[in-house]
Write a structure and sequence with these properties.
The protein starts with a strand and ends in an 18-residue tail after the last helix. It contains eleven helices and 20 strands. The chain is 33% helix and 27% strand. Helix 1 runs parallel beside helix 4 and helix 1 packs parallel to helix 8. The protein is α+β, with helices and mostly antiparallel strands and 411 residues long. The structure holds flavin-adenine dinucleotide. The site of flavin-adenine dinucleotide (FAD) has 35 residues, from helix 1, strand 9 and helix 8.
Length: 411
């Protein structure tokens, strides 16, 4: 027996970028919405930090961009890579026809807290933390709600629509019995912080050398470092020992030589496993999956957050009217998949190309990696840097907000 039951228009499982943005958009349009998030806060540092020009455009359309940009962030107008000794700019965002011609690097908890604060202005929005969905409630074929564990006992939420936005290990997709196409990923990531000094300046973002790749994200007081390793090789690296690992880092980024000692034990180095897949079917009556729950994204290009947010915007555009009416048909849910499947496939195709042609070769190689032809062309002709900027900064089908602001503001 549940300790509590709630009834709502839309129940969103997962308070990540997809779930929070969808929750905000629905509440803003006047739909009753409940977002369930299993963690007690948004304070996890492994979710990625990138807010892309197309997402910033969405914020501008919502009238919240200026306020958002007051939050701590860094603005990257170009993205570069260092291959051996060669430093090369591979994407130039300054030519995009968007209001913001940069990627904003912002810790994801800042972004999610900001969206939560905006959403809470609407009386139809409810965010319930520390609530882990464990099962779907069905009536025949139709999903009519979810069961969740909370510190106060079991909660049942009944709703016209359940949206699975619970990420790449989605419980919703598993309980719905959706089939997954596994696309494979040749790498995992070791994730760690090293302090940043003023004299470090703007370093290139990616460093590639014999058998190694290091990505460094500037978080002002510290570098968030992602060391890319062959899939499943974390135990081998741990066995060789922390001193050898520190030396590897210094070989890639000599300016870190003293700071690598901040990695005192393996507890300071987290393993993040990378997955890439997508569902054949994103919906069934009463249920839709979006974001990583529908298509787990590799970190290549740092585009998964943007794609998840674009899914949320498209879902709101397609479904608000039906949710306000109180009945959502399978045809309407299928429209979301029809709109978002192509950009997902295209993005995953590009990621697969980079994974197989660049990352796998670098990680498996013993020789100094040569600069690929395409990167040499980007180095020679600045004009060409606009194209990677479009793919990374805007994505394949950028969405625009078409839903009205009709929700009641809290008094
Ligand atoms: C190592 C790594 C680095 C990455 N770096 C970047 C990057 O820099 N930029 C980028 O754009 N993308 C990056 N990505 C991809 C990005 O993290 C995802 O594509 C993106 O977070 C998807 O957003 P989402 O909202 O769909 O899912 P998530 O961000 O995974 O959010 C899902 C939410 O659901 C909650 N949840 C899960 N299960 C339940 C449950 N049963 N009940 C209730 N709540 C639940 C989770 O706690 C979480 O808050 C990276 C991925 C990896 C693996």
């Amino acid at each position: 027996m549940p300790s509590k039951e709630i009834s709502t228009g839309c129940c969103i499982v997962g308070g990540g970028p997809a779930g929070m943005v969808l929750g905000y958009l629905l509440a803003r349009a006047g739909v009753e919405v409940v977002v369930l998030e299993k963690h007690a806060d948004f304070l996890r540092d492994f979710r990625g930090d990138t807010i892309h020009p197309s997402t910033l455009e969405v914020m501008s359309e919502l009238g919240i961009l200026d306020e958002f940009l007051k939050r701590p962030h860094q603005e990257a107008r170009e993205i570069g890579v260092q291959i051996g000794d060669a430093k090369i700019i591979i994407a130039d965002f300054t030519h995009l026809k968007t209001r913001c011609k940069f990627i904003a690097f912002m810790p994801q908890w800042e972004f999610l807290n900001f969206i939560a604060e905006r959403a809470k202005h609407y009386s139809s929005f409810q965010l319930i933390m520390q609530t882990e969905v464990t099962d779907l409630i069905t009536d025949g074929e139709r999903v009519v709600g979810v069961r969740a564990n909370t510190p106060q006992g079991m909660l049942e939420v009944r709703s016209e629509l359940v949206v699975g936005a619970d990420g790449r290990h989605s419980t919703v997709r598993e309980k719905a019995g959706f089939e997954t196409v596994d696309l494979g990923a040749p790498m995992d990531v070791l994730w760690m912080r090293l302090s940043r000094r003023l004299e470090d300046g703007g370093q290139t973002l990616g460093r590639v050398d014999t058998g190694r790749i290091l990505i460094m994200i500037d978080r002002e007081e510290y570098w968030q470092c992602a060391y890319v390793i062959r899939k499943g090789s974390a135990d081998e690296i741990r066995r060789i020992g922390l001193p050898a690992f520190r030396e590897e880092l210094v070989r890639l980024a000599p300016f870190l030589s003293e700071r690598v000692n901040e990695l005192v034990s393996w507890d300071d180095v987290k393993l993040l496993t990378v997955a890439a897949d997508r569902l054949g079917q994103w919906c069934r009556p009463g249920l839709l999956c979006i974001g990583d729950a529908a298509h787990a994204m590799s970190p290549v290009g740092g585009v998964g957050i943007n794609l998840a947010i674009q899914d949320a915007v498209a879902s709101a555009n397609v479904l608000v009217e039906a949710l306000l009416r109180g009945t959502v048909t399978i045809e309407e849910l299928s429209k979301v998949q029809a709109r978002r499947e192509w950009p997902t496939r295209m993005t995953q195709r590009v990621q697969g190309f980079v994974q197989n042609r660049v990352i796998e070769r670098v990680l498996g190689g013993n020789a100094q990696p040569s600069v690929p032809l395409v990167v040499r062309l980007l180095d020679r002709w600045r004009y060409l840097r606009r194209f990677p900027a479009i793919v990374v900064g805007l994505g394949f089908r950028p969405e625009h907000v078409k839903t009205p602001e009709a929700g009641k503001e809290m008094t």
